[in-house]
Amino acid sequence: MAQQVSSNPLAEQENLRVLGANGLNNIVMVKNKLYEGVKGTPYFLPAWSTGDILLSTKQRVTNVPLKYDVYSRQIMARRPKGDSVWVDQGRIVEFTLQDARALPGQPAIHIFRLFANLPNQPNRPEFLEVLHPTGPYVLLKRPVKTLYKASTQQAYSADRPYDELVDTPEYYLLNPQGTMTLVKPSQKALLAAVPAQWAEPLRAQLKKANLRTEDDLFNAVSQLNLLASKK
User: Fold this and answer.
1) Minimal CA–CA distance to 106: which of 220, 223, 214?
2) Distance (Å, rounded) from C-alpha 212 to C-alpha 173?
3) Each residue of 36-71: pLDDT tens digit?
4) How far is residue 104's CA from residue 14's CA, in Å, rounded to a whole number?
5) Contacts of residue 42, Cβ cutoff 8 Å, sequence gap at least 6
6) Taking a C-beta distance cutoff of 8 angstroms, is the pair 46, 67 a contact?
7) Bridge partner list, 67
């Protein structure tokens, strides 16, 4: 009858210590964490969304199941027979996505328009979400998905055993003259992007307001448009 061997974690740790003390570190191996795949989604919305596509010919294609792959900057459409295809973006100037899961107070329709000559993307047209379409100043959002790679090389590593796609959006303020400025959800960044005639009045409006999130930035641009519309 085979002898049953019991496991004792303390004894196992002592064995490792003894092996190391006898110069045998080169034969002691500790198993790394297993790679767990990718967390997050490359898509703007994880599920298929009903949307419209506006072509450069002014033709509008309506009620199309769409997905926007932010990571690869590709638009995917689902055809009636159920398969999906990448859409030729060379003819698209605008598309929309309906968010069926939007909560009250959240936008149910996301509008993306093609813009050229972004401050940090010269001569490279990009689809930007139009967050604040009305008013002299327009708030735009460039969705970005940043891939953080797994780190599983160290023994007993506390790092991530998985890759992760994380939202790291960029925001732009489009002024009435058509100039686009990169802004962040902060009072300092927004005030630096507006003309001096609006900077001080806007600073007074935002004195008691927090400006840290996308919603805060949206509200601040609303205040800016109220000031600019009174000129």
Assistant:
1) 214
2) 16
3) 788 999 999 999 999 999 999 999 999 999 999 999
4) 59
5) 69, 70, 71, 72, 145, 165
6) no
7) 76
Specify the residue for token string 């998985």.
162
Instruction: Write down the residue that tokens 């600019």 correspond to.
Output: 228
Structure tokens at 27: 């034969």
How many angstroms separate the Cα of 94 from the Cα of each of 68, 89, 91, 118? 12, 10, 9, 17
Q: Which residue has the tokens 């997905």?
A: 67
Q: Residue 63 corresponds to which tokens in the numbers above?
A: 């009620």
Radius of gyration of the chain (CA): 26
User: Distance between CA atoms of 134 and 11, rounded to whole angstroms?
Assistant: 70
Give which of 72, 69, 51 is closest to 60, Cα–Cα: 51
pLDDT tens, 175-208? 999 999 999 999 999 999 999 999 999 999 998 8
Going by DSSP bridges, is the β-strand pair 38-39/163-167 parallel, antiparallel, or unpaired? parallel
Residue 159 neighbours by CB under 8 Å, 6+ apart: 150, 151, 152
Say if pTM beats, i.e. exceeds, 0.90. no
Q: What is the DSSP letter of 67?
A: E
Burial class of residue 172 (count of CB atoms within 10 Å of its CB; 0-12, 13-18, 19+): buried
